[in-house]
Amino acid sequence: MGIHKYFRSLNELERIIRCPGKFKFEEHSVAAHSWKVVQYAKTLADIEEKHGAQIDWKKLYNITSSHDYGEIFIGDIKTPVKHSSMQLRQLIQQVEEGMVNHFIEEHIPQEFKGTFYHQLREGKDDSLEGLILEVADKMDQVYEAFAELQRGNTEKEFVVMYRNALIKIKHIKLRSVDYFLEEILPDMVNEETLSSINIRQITEEALAL
Amino acid sequence: MGIHKYFRSLNELERIIRCPGKFKFEEHSVAAHSWKVVQYAKTLADIEEKHGAQIDWKKLYNITSSHDYGEIFIGDIKTPVKHSSMQLRQLIQQVEEGMVNHFIEEHIPQEFKGTFYHQLREGKDDSLEGLILEVADKMDQVYEAFAELQRGNTEKEFVVMYRNALIKIKHIKLRSVDYFLEEILPDMVNEETLSSINIRQITEEALAL
Amino acid sequence: MGIHKYFRSLNELERIIRCPGKFKFEEHSVAAHSWKVVQYAKTLADIEEKHGAQIDWKKLYNITSSHDYGEIFIGDIKTPVKHSSMQLRQLIQQVEEGMVNHFIEEHIPQEFKGTFYHQLREGKDDSLEGLILEVADKMDQVYEAFAELQRGNTEKEFVVMYRNALIKIKHIKLRSVDYFLEEILPDMVNEETLSSINIRQITEEALAL
Amino acid sequence: MGIHKYFRSLNELERIIRCPGKFKFEEHSVAAHSWKVVQYAKTLADIEEKHGAQIDWKKLYNITSSHDYGEIFIGDIKTPVKHSSMQLRQLIQQVEEGMVNHFIEEHIPQEFKGTFYHQLREGKDDSLEGLILEVADKMDQVYEAFAELQRGNTEKEFVVMYRNALIKIKHIKLRSVDYFLEEILPDMVNEETLSSINIRQITEEALAL
Amino acid sequence: MGIHKYFRSLNELERIIRCPGKFKFEEHSVAAHSWKVVQYAKTLADIEEKHGAQIDWKKLYNITSSHDYGEIFIGDIKTPVKHSSMQLRQLIQQVEEGMVNHFIEEHIPQEFKGTFYHQLREGKDDSLEGLILEVADKMDQVYEAFAELQRGNTEKEFVVMYRNALIKIKHIKLRSVDYFLEEILPDMVNEETLSSINIRQITEEALAL
Amino acid sequence: MGIHKYFRSLNELERIIRCPGKFKFEEHSVAAHSWKVVQYAKTLADIEEKHGAQIDWKKLYNITSSHDYGEIFIGDIKTPVKHSSMQLRQLIQQVEEGMVNHFIEEHIPQEFKGTFYHQLREGKDDSLEGLILEVADKMDQVYEAFAELQRGNTEKEFVVMYRNALIKIKHIKLRSVDYFLEEILPDMVNEETLSSINIRQITEEALAL
Predict the structure, then answer these.
(1) Per its UniProt record, what SUPFAM superfamilies does this chain match (chains A, B, C, D, E, F) (predicted)?
(2) Is pLDDT above 80 for B174?
């Protein structure tokens, strides 16, 4: 019972793997992914601040730290499924919220329920912090897909994963996104790769959209 | 393209883990689970035959061999989610069917489409073979949960998994189910266990329902 | 005791790896392999039926479902060893049969001993079902070897494994084998590969024999 | 080059294991540990805020997000070694700082060097945020050790790890620490355990010091 | 070609697991086992020397360092199989020798063939060094089995493995064996254990034989 | 207590990984590495003997068998750190010796303390055996790095690891080193590789230094 129950549950996300079955060279746990998202988000926020933006750091910490906690309840539902129909997507989101809320109701002491509702809600919205989270989440998708492609995984889904994440990032109008696309991404594309897949070409096509 | 695409995809189910994050002592891939279900189903069918039932072996082979193939598309959606609402359950099932059908449309040569529609459909129905599949699937849940409990995993969900599977099995009126409950299950309950959980008691309570 | 003992033992085959030490990119358990063989066999049988053959589905199910169960007793004895001398091969087979029989004698209830003798016997014979099992078993060898080669494993043994399996398959005169060689295999050869090994060439040479 | 180099390096911490060789039941990567520390720190900070403290969330985010990044350079040096002599401890810390600084000098663009110096410095100091980080880091040690003990690991080092972490936490005078000791820890102690080790007794002794 | 081929092959023994399928808590590679045998053998030899025996250290090094190298060729053939019939056991040994010799013939330069024949031969004979190797090999079996039992594995085979190894050790009349039984083994028996199995009792029974 | 404690501890080195985080294709435990070093050292010593050198086999066995045992205490401290300053390197070595001695004092019976002090000391010195150990240790670094490069790992550190090990080996003036460089290494360079890295070139450059 209590917050202890929440802390104990974090361990599960060390054992839940993203995109099960797909990664051939290295799998990534939700815990590791979450940590990397916290990293990217911080750097993105730092870049925004450098350009004069005002970051609500408390909010950022709030929404990035546990952004995939819900996967403890709903598991890893593959993206194509989540997006196969708006109806299904909303229903899954409702169920996830319901389960998170139920967990909070059952285990979190009264005086912290509000804190946890805030922390475990879906943080991707139109605020600067929400957009940063969205970009950070997609950036990890780029890095994960790139690592597979670079090591020689020729499966189409990683090209798709890589490309779709780039396209999503590109459409979020932020200074930090510009920086990522102009300064960080080129270094990735310049990495040596075993793949016969032309990562440079895919990147350019995605960014042209 | 072609059936080759189907054969290549089987490898993914070797890497998709059941109930990700939950199993502490040993994880089970969908491929291994599927194989065990084929095993249990055969024995259940043999028992039914011994009692004078007529088994359509072709149908049984058909529905047991690829019964979880759909998880390649929808991933492992946790049971509590699938059953959280009838509406969601149906929607997920629709999506899964749609994706399976789409795969078959795209990859399976015309002359075998029918065969694959049959093979990859949901096989649990009210026929004897369909019920056998249902029991076999639940039996593996019993065995998986038992193995965790017996090794000392005290998490409530395994008690729940064990019990719910037994209850489901019990409600399927088959001679082979009687045999399982009267001859096979007692041997399981008599195994030595590290657990402080009283497996015997849980078993008896479940079967009393 | 009892059939429970058999069911509990299936878990071991989840942990026994094929060709231990050889696979660099991905290992395969005997359980996963067995499941894939059940898959291939079904499709081969479907193809045969389409060409007017009569399939004894009960027999097929019987011999494919537990075809490598004996590895629980004898472990994974490398092919070069098994085939190093006819005498050794026969002796190992005798020992395996003896151990399987001993297991059945000791654990399987009287009324099912016959069933299990049938189920756990060596199923590869000259019947259509026996040949299908032989082909299915070799097909998995092709797929396993191909996966390693395609990911860049340049070890000679995978070329040998790939080739020998193809040669064995080719010599089994079945319509489904023709289909495999003419319709399915080309798709494999056309897959992109990292390997400097000319898989196309190896394939053509093997099939020319 | 560039921040890309930093982002790419995060993947390594997914593969660096804490206390290598010691954990028998489950190993934890530095990445997963880091993520959990971010979690605990947030809750501790929330508790502090509830008691009227002022949290510099930007600072907290800063020091918790990459607090063990240095392990990429120095590896996992066992605690007994680090603390074997003050001289060695200081020297190791100097070396780590030197390597982190060198990395930043070499790879981070000029305009972000300052940000990264801040982010990758040692964050444990006497500020409220620094103490929260210290507590959060030790809390994960408690949770990691408890998980091993609870699953039956009787090795003395886990008792030591558990106890030392509790003692360290106890000596940090914070409201959130009181909350942890009074509200959260008891739930842990009340969990069922396989161990013959009296966790309750160890806990009480540690807290009495 | 050449000794390089031999050196490269050592890596395989890092991936070949002993008793595949049986170990539940921790598997052991042949490489790790081989290293531990080198360790035990040294200590046993040191004890013998202390009692005035003359150790041919070159011979000891020779026979302990690569004592299981043959498993690269024959794989891990389970003990019950190897011992099921004297005829089979001899045949397997012949095959193994044949394959080792073939490897040496094919790859080892002429001037070192003799060295490798010596190194890769079966070292267990009646010499003091040969007996030490036999004891060391069995000691690892004791340690491996004990580790599983101590962690709660209740499978009969580990009791059998533990006991048989002890009995074999006991029947080898060496001072170092006496030391092991009188000074080292009691410390093992005194370790805390989760098992309901009475290790002390099993030990005493085995030693009474 | 006693030598049992030492034997039990060997298991930890099966779980301590070399260069954690760096190896992408295959990790190596300290136990496996130790065993391979014993192998290489034997062959190097055989070569020396062939050239008329006198090998103290007891000493060789002594210093090669447990040469990395200290890693149980100090963990795997990355080379760049160990060599970052002579002062740190000496301090770490002092600490390691201290911990090894402490272990021996605490656990090894009086009559064997001397033996263990000899066995667990740093064996690399200017004696022929000490140099052989040095070469053998570096050879494994060559093989480990080569395996990663050959499989396509393009990370600079493996080029550095490969090259530095070769340079170190080259500077040790031994007949067996000449043999390694002239007869064994060329076979490695001639192996097929996926890497775009020119291993031949790197090798030639390293040996030219």
Answers:
(1) HD-domain/PDEase-like (SSF109604)
(2) yes
Burial of B187 (0-12, 13-18, 19+ CB in 10 A): middle
**CB-based contact F18:F30 (threshold 8 Å):** yes
- The helices-and-strands tally (H runs, E runs) of chain B is 12, 0
Report, as an integer, the average pLDDT of D90-117. 90
Residues of chain A with Cβ-Cβ distance to D112 below 8 Å are 43, 46-47, 50
pLDDT tens per residue, range B76-92:
676 677 677 788 888 88
- Mean pLDDT of all residues in D2-27: 90
Mutate to test the interface with C, among F190, F192, F193, F196 (most CBs of C within 10 A): F192
**Residue of E4, E42, E62 lying closest to F65 (CB–CB):** E42
Q: Distance (Å, rounded) from C-alpha F49 to C-alpha F176? A: 9
How close E106 comes to chain D (CA, Å)?
39
Closest C-alpha to E165, from E143, E183, E133, E197: E143
Q: pLDDT at position F131, please?
A: 97
Residues of C in contact with A154 (CB under 8 A): 191-192, 194
Cβ atoms of residues C147 and B78 within 8 Å: no
Fold of F3-207: Hypothetical protein af1432 (1.10.3210)
Contact status, residue F207 vs residue E25, Cβ threshold 8 Å: no
What's the per-residue H, E or C state across B125-180? CCCHHHHHHHHHHHHHHHHHHHHHHHCCCCCHHHHHHHHHHHHHHHCCCCHHHHHH
CA distance C71 to C30: 8
pLDDT at residue F96, as a whole number: 84
Q: Is A192 on the interface with F (CB under 8 A)?
A: yes
Q: Give residue D195's pLDDT band: very low, low, confident or very high (50, 70, 90).
A: low
- The predicted structure's pLDDT at residue A194: 63
Chain E residues with CB under 8 Å of C88 CB are 88, 91-92, 95
Q: What integer is the mean pLDDT of B62-69?
A: 92
Would the CB atoms of B192 and E24 count as touching at under 8 Å? no
pLDDT at D74 over 90: no
Q: What angle do CA D130, D135, D139 make, to 5 degrees?
A: 150
Mean pLDDT for the stretch of residues C73-78: 73
Determine contact: D72 vs chain A, CB below 8 A: no
ipTM of the complex: 0.93
Query: What does the pLDDT read at residue F72?
Result: 87
CA distances from E65 to A130, F38, F133 (A): 60, 7, 15
Q: Where are the alpha helices (DSSP H) in D83-155?
A: 86-107, 110-119, 128-150
**Residues D35, D160, F12: CA angle, nearest 5 degrees:** 80
Q: Is the pLDDT of residue E31 over 90?
A: yes
pLDDT at E195 over 70: no
Which subunits sit against B, judged by 3+ Cβ pairs under 8 A? A, C, D, E
Question: Interface partners of A (3+ CB pairs, < 8 Å)?
Answer: B, C, D, F
Would you state the pLDDT for residue C196? 66
- Judged by a CB distance cut-off of 8 A, whether residue F84 touches chain D is yes
Determine, for residues A154 and C25 on separate chains, whether the beta-carbon distance falls below 8 Å.
no
| Whether D152 and B152 lie within 8 Å, measured CB to CB | yes
Is the pLDDT confidence value at C194 over 70? no
Do the beta carbons of residue E16 and residue C20 sit within 8 Å? yes
Our CA dihedral for F144, F147, F148, F152, rounded to 10 degrees, sits at: 170
Q: What is the pLDDT of residues A108-117, one digit of tens each?
A: 999 999 999 9
